[in-house]
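User: Could you write out the 3D structure of this protein bound to iron/sulfur cluster? I've included everything you need below.
Assistant: Certainly. Input first, then the structure.
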Amino acid sequence: MSRLLDNKLSRRRFLGLSSCALATVVVGSQVKVLRALAKSGEVGDLTRLPDKSVFTSCEMCVNKCGVIARVRNGVIYKLDPNPDYIKSRDMLCARGNAGIKAMYDPDRLKYPLIREGKRGEGKWRRASWEEALDLVAKNLTELGEKYTRAGTMFLSTEGFQEHFFLMLAECYGSPNTVRHPTLCLASNIQGFGATFGTNPTPDVLNADYIIMSGANRAEAFITPDTIDLLKGDGGRRKLVYLDPRFTKTSAKADEWYPIKAGTDMAFILALIHVIVTESLYDRGFIETMTVGFDQLAVHIEPYTPEWAAAECDIPAADIRRIAREFAAAAPKAVYYQGRRSSFFSNDTQMRRAMAILNAIAGNWDVPGGMIPNGKIKLAEHVYIAPWYDDIPDRLDQGSVTYLSAKDGAWLHFRDRVLAAEPYPVKGMMIYKQNPLQAAPNRAKTLQMMEQMEFICTIDITMSDTAWYSDVVLPEATYLERMDPVESLPGILPVLSLRYQCAEPLFESKPNLWIMQQIAKRLDEEVFESFDYTIEEFVDHQLSNNPAAKQMLEEKGVYYESPTPVYRSSYGKPLRTKSGKIEIYSEKYAENGLDPLPVYTAPEAPPAGRYRLLVGRHAYFTHGTTQNNPWLHDLMPENTLWLNTQEAKKLGLKHGRMVQVKSPVGVQTLKLEVTEKIRPDCVYMAHGFGVLSRGLTNIYGKGACDAALIEDKACPISGNAAMHETFVEISPA
Amino acid sequence: MTNKRYAIVLDTRKCIDCKACTVACKAENGVPIGRDNYRNWVTTEKLRGTYPNLGQSFTPGQCMQCGNTPCNHVCPTKATGVNPDGLVTVEEKKCIGCKYCMTACPYNARYYNEETKAVDKCTFCAHRIYAGGLPACVETCPTKVRVFGDLNDPNSEVSRLLAKHPSRVIKPEMGTKPFLFYLM
Ligand code: SF4
Ligand code: SF4
Ligand code: SF4
């Protein structure tokens, strides 16, 4: 795959050529995009308005970094980082900078669309909001009568206006909200929650020693962690990084170990073994703050570094040394748990092992350790959802040990829809979620969608999921709407607010307006819960905190302290059963789960097959920003990484097209022969191989990992296990 | 003497190749879409070693605002000019698109902008710094790889960094006297 570098060296080839050599240049500036759209009658003419700067926060990924939008004549021409926004430390990443192009994007959804042809055929009719909303309300009402109100599932993913969508589900009367966590971090929340009563945040800035398992922070951005990992201490900090791939985080790490995928728990248990047997733990801390250390000491005996070395391909001497270094650096040391933990079906127990290691080293609520999240209080939004008598339990009730009633268990839910067990689900309301890219086994998701009687998607672009819907409603982008205040928890908790930076383009509308319109059509009683403007909603949220209102207006952010507050959890019971850090989990034992993490080796790839790894990087957010013109420029398609030696064995050359076959799907993409991956694995970046022709820059490019990954999951948290699929590679 | 001499000092050890600087620049300076159009860049250097002993570095760059400017010398219309503070500029209206400067620049720092019909390049975001701001790439960088400032001010961060750490410039043999300094 060519990179900017190659292009940089090759751009001289245009020297001396006439300008027609570049005739296909696409317009660059926002004003020019608007002029082009105005010419075709899609937007009105540009007006002259005064220059202004508006505070908002980025919605190109989930970090919500602080932004100042620079606006001239009503057009946003630049997004600058907000220096006062302590969470993102005065930076915007490539996606954040490309936010303008999400708004001024010719591929945007412009007006409501109603499907004309078959699902997925791409035949649409432009409809008025009136007609589209009537159709949505009519279907919701009819589905409710036919299948009870649980017969419609509500899929969404986090965002400042998701609250209104979840409210609609509740007021409509469906218990079946299916959110993203079980495709992402549910096992992290579960594993750390079972140990600490919360999923804490590692204090990256102040830690002297950090171990990361596959959390590719140099590419998968988390603010402020990504920033803090590289700056702030002039290189004093040590980073040990485990990943079957040589990522950009590997390039920045002090030590990189290409661990055998799925064996991280063995590595962690061996670290615990060394720390326990050599008495390197924090005895005082363990005595006052934890329960179950004695059971751990016995449990850990067989997990020697020598044993682990054979499991994970990391030398025993290194494991021993890392354990000692980690203990010596404690409590300013963290085993960083990462965010996405949808790797293996043992993920919850693996995250438990990480939590236990942090606990015995005493890395709790002190500088450089694991810090329970602070959160700033907002006035609660109290509303009354109507009561319906005939509503059954969630469809996925009882499918996993710990089911979140708000999030559900994505893959289990889909299986039950397909089996119509215990009842049929025939309607889908979707806000921002894109399961055709996000959920493993795309064929199965398509099957689930096929049996739906009605599907409505609210989004800003024609995602694959929108493409397979019956009604598509265009939402205003984050730059075009005011959003509720969001209280972002963390080491540096902040309140974040989006002021509206520009008028919504085309006929797009904020989600609150869309929800109000649907509510109105459903029932007067339902509408009562939605009857306010966004300004009134925000005023209410801040009604107990005038200081917050003022600081948000002046600085675009509110915080109580610009530096972390430590030790706030000391002297108080934690939110665990015992009130202490649970090394041994009584709760797990009662539920028939291993009370201490027990290692089982992952299945090895069968001969001739490779383990498929998926991953994120700094240019794209999940399946959402690949089509953004500026980001697309950085990486126009994905490739399949295959180790050089393996490629030689298979006789496959760099750059050729290959077919990748898994038990659930086949995809074709370009081969990237590289040293950057273990010989037993292959990798492709997420978010390509789209079905939607509405994504004109990327349609027909690269391959879709969701089409290949099998639907396996962690039985405790329900989290998808995305690294348990083996694929065959052949010439295409 | 109140004259300024602007420079950028880079600590590439902090660079994670995230390309935020490249995209910020495109937005700030209306650089047309297309992979051949850019005012700044991040070179993903060749992988060192073989599996599993690997290393890689990333090198951001842009116009070096040279002290001795081959681009300026060859410009037939004086479209390229040098400000007293060292910033090298291109006056759009005067540029006839002959591209001599593109050939002359040893750093491939210039491109031809089809929209403005003129050669374009990094000016350290002159319009931003004259208004008291920072170059867009400097400001947006997550890890603050680039530091911008005035070398004529001994107390500026750039002066202090260069006094404290050894540094290098790219292609010193060309005699261009670049003002982009890479810390070693
Ligand atoms: S990390 Fe990047 S995309 Fe995510 S919120 Fe921050 S600036 Fe936006
Ligand atoms: S923004 Fe900073 S870290 Fe990212 S590529 Fe540019 S110089 Fe490197
Ligand atoms: S880097 Fe190239 S364009 Fe910039 S001043 Fe030097 S020679 Fe001129």
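Chain A has a mean pLDDT of 93.
User: Perfect, thank you.
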